[in-house]
Design a protein that fits this description.
Elements lengths: L1 E7 L2 H15 L7 E6 L3 H16 L5 E4 L29 E9 L3 H10 L7 E11 L10 E7 L4 E6 L9 E6 L1
Parallel strand pairs: 2-3, 2-4, 4-5, 5-6
Antiparallel strand pairs: 1-8, 7-8
Helix pairs in contact: 1-2
Organism: Aquirufa regiilacus
Keywords: Glycosyltransferase, Transferase
Pfam family, one: Pribosyltran
Length: 178
Amino acid sequence: MTRKLILSSPLLEITISRLCQELIENQIQGTETVILGLQPRGIYFAERIAAELGKQLNTSFPVGRLDATFFRDDYRRRDTIAPNSTDISFLIENKRVILVDDVLATGRMVRAALDAMNSFGRPAKVELCVLIDRIYNRDLPINADYVGKSVNTLPTEKVLVEWKEQGHEADKIWLITQ
């Protein structure tokens, strides 16, 4: 198994700042916008996006945590199921939802998240923001509106995101070859 560093600080902070600029350019100020982080690691990225937007716009955005485990099309096929909690303390009905995840791979988790979101209302618009887009790995026709970095990967490779909030020494994103 080999590990190749894809992204780390300070380039990670620059990438997050750039993504926030793109969100601002697309009229985030004039709409009611909420941010939903996908469990488990998308929540850390969502909190970083919300903090950076708050700093740049001098306002705050509601941030929620969405677990789509039971909406996945493969959850019954797994030996172990480890669901996380969903915490959305606001309405998403008729709001612009920025769905945030760390890695976009097959698109199946995003599809499951869209299904899970329906339990909380019908948003006016949903946009997808990902830190890493594993291109050439899609099973479903799902693409991100905002991408931190696109990475060409093989099916035998994996992208691992380590956040300080998870107890890691530093934020690092690795490409792991099996």
